[in-house]
Amino acid sequence: MDALHLVLNAVTVIFIGATMFAAGLRATVPALRSVFADIPLLLLALIANMVVIPLLGWGLGALLGLSSASFIALILIASSPGGLFGAKLATVQQGDVGALVRTVAPLQLVPFAIGLLLRRYAESTGRSWHPTAAAVSNITFLVVLAAMRLGNWRDVVDLFGSLALLAGFLLAVFAGVRRRALRARPRSSPGAWRGWS
Q1: Torsions phi, psi of 169, nearest 5?
Q2: Which residue has the higher pLDDT, 80 or 40?
Q3: Comparing 33-47, 72-86, 169-183, which segment has the lowest mean pLDDT?
Q4: What are phi and psi of 27, to 5 degrees?
């Protein structure tokens, strides 16, 4: 079982690295600059991710009357950057927040920066590498998801008939709506607040 966990942890790291590398290959410096210059968008994204979604998790848990374990799990997933994968990385680091940040920050930022630089200074190479990076990301995502389900299949079966699956589904729907709302929001010019239209 320890070998399976080691493999799953390694595949999770590859998934995150490949995903961020592929994202970097798709990004441009001007596009990033415009995002960081849009202060209202950044504030809305922070509020949505750090306040609204965790509160939704808490509210759904309370509304559906989840058991203590399911309630806590729902709040942790809602509060965790990256959802299930953030929670998985937290377990890999045994709940040590400092170790988690030291692991996740380079694991996400370094591949992203490499992809971004490759796109900027060797665009044709970056363009040709993107399909492979995206394929690795997709395949490892499926492997991690399947391994998480298979490794915990008894726990998943125990969830049937409880409201925990419904709560998780509703949280995912709300998170998707939040993501679409932020994407659909008209971009303001740097320093100007145009609000929602």
Answers
A1: -65, -45
A2: 40
A3: 72-86
A4: -90, 160
CA atoms within 13 A on the CB side of 90: 14
CB 33, CB 162: distance < 8 Å: no
Alpha-carbon separation of residue 189 from 3, 113, 121, 194 (angstroms):
51, 25, 27, 8
Evaluate if residue 13 carries a pLDDT over 90: no
Cα 44 from Cα 116, distance rounded (Å) = 25
Q: Which two tokens stand for residue 60?
A: 């759904």
Q: Which two tokens stand for residue 192?
A: 């100007």
Closest CA to 191 of 31, 40, 44: 40
What SS3 class is residue 122? Answer: coil
- Cα-flanking dihedrals φ and ψ of residue 191, to 5°? 85, -5
pLDDT tens for 89-117 read: 555 545 555 666 677 778 888 999 999 99
As a whole number, the mean pLDDT across the chain is 77
| Structure confidence at residue 130 (pLDDT) | 93
Reading the block at residue 188, the tokens are 């303001």
Q: Where do the H-state alpha helices sit in the chain? A: 2-26, 29-37, 39-47, 53-63, 68-79, 84-92, 97-121, 123-151, 153-159, 164-184
On whether the pTM is more than 0.70, the answer is no
